[in-house]
Specification:
6-stranded mixed β-sheet; about 15% strand; 8 helices; alpha/beta; about 290 residues
């Protein structure tokens, strides 16, 4: 069963390894490289699993397939590793299982078989990370008490092909990493679309994802715009939260100084560079230096 919500936009990663006409083949090549398996397209049954996105809110950024009784969830992550990913994958895979197991079967005596899950983060960011690491749900628990609930996400570092031999086993992954590097290098936040066009032209000249980009250049530009808009939105929100925190601390400091009575409200406003009306009502009398 496939769940689709058209309001969510694919990322290039999701399209390349999921939605695209060659997505099934690309996914199998990638999974073979990640897991060390040797599945052949003609020998396996693959079914894509897509639900309303829970990992990201503005565009679809996951690839999930069921392959011969295994449920594979791949998550692209381009900047920094999110240590909450095990919890987010738990939320995600639960919703997939809800779509697999009929409601009536959940209360039946007989066990309803479900596919074994496997979780990966394909990391293509700039930080220096180990070739492979694991994120565990149990790391988020208050206490390490041997709880039976666990979920392990394998993080594969694909930043440097020399660090990760799988790049040599999966041409499509290697070319994807090269394309993302070109995009990052040419990105211009003032003229994003033209910079994305330039990145696509550069990649095609270097025979990187040439056939895919030739077919879908317009769609790829739209995907990149959605992704970078999201990244910009998150960055702005983080900056605003930081500034709000700084202002809140300055107001608290101002109140303490005002209560101390050695400075006037006007002097404190100049000293801490905050608006006078943000704290001057705190003390009934604005006194100057004693």
């Amino acid at each position: 069963m496939i769940f689709r919500n058209r309001k969510y936009k694919d990322s290039v990663f999701t399209d390349l390894f999921g939605s695209d006409r060659d997505g099934k083949k690309n996914f199998l090549d990638l999974y073979n490289a990640l897991s060390g398996s040797d599945y052949k397209l003609e020998d396996v049954k693959l079914e894509r699993k897509v639900i309303e996105q829970t990992l990201y809110k503005t565009y679809n950024n996951d690839v999930s397939w069921e392959i011969d009784g295994k449920l594979i969830v791949l998550v692209e992550h381009q900047s920094t590793i999110n240590n909450n990913m095990p919890f987010r994958c738990l939320e995600y895979v639960t919703r997939i299982y809800e779509g697999i197991v009929p409601s009536k079967k959940r209360y039946a005596e007989k066990v309803y078989k479900i596919p074994n899950p496997d979780f990966y983060v394909v990391y293509v960011g700039k930080d220096k990370l180990p070739q492979e690491q694991e994120l565990r749900l149990s790391d988020a628990f208050y206490e390490k008490d041997g709880s039976k609930l666990e979920l392990v996400v394998k993080v594969k570092n694909c930043t440097d092909p020399a660090m990760l031999p799988i790049a040599g086993k999966c041409d499509i992954l290697k070319e994807y990493c090269q394309f993302i590097e070109i995009v990052e290098r040419t990105y211009n936040k003032r003229f994003p679309k033209s910079s994305f066009r330039k990145a696509i032209e550069t990649a095609m000249k270097q025979d990187i994802l040439k056939e895919y980009l030739d077919r879908k250049s317009r769609e790829v530009i739209n995907m990149l715009c959605a992704k970078y808009d999201y990244k910009m939105d998150i960055a702005v929100k983080q900056e605003e939260a930081f500034e709000d925190g700084k202002e809140a601390k300055a107001i608290e400091d101002a109140k303490k100084l005002l209560a101390d009575g050695r400075y006037s409200a006007e002097e404190i406003s100049i000293l801490l560079q905050i608006p006078l009306d943000s704290f001057s009502d705190f003390h009934p009398v604005n006194r100057g230096r004693s």
